[in-house]
Amino acid sequence: MSSGRHFIPYRRDLKRRSQSLRRDPSPAERKLWYEFLRGLPVKFTRQKPLGRYIADFYCASRMLVVELDGDSHYNDRAQRYDAFRTSELGAQGIQVVRVTNADVMQNFEGVCATILGILDTKP
User: For residue 4, is it within any domain?
Assistant: First the structure.
């Protein structure tokens, strides 16, 4: 009998990088984690290796990734990479939600409401 969980391969070579990212979060990542995500009844993990990527925040029970995009995401190359990455994760059944660092810092309640809305629609 299947538990309904989907296995995502883990790459050991991403472990050190994900640990480093957890130790040194951006101000927006810190705010979203400590003021919202870590207190939710559904479990999120920070800087989670998923296949060949590291997700900023991942909720395994809802197959949801929350990505925070800073200034480095605003050029054409980065946007193509982000779209490809979102597509690859989507092919594995993972929904990716992208918010900007500026949104987290300037519209925190709106970002939290958006995430809660998505969580409410996912079984």
Answer: no
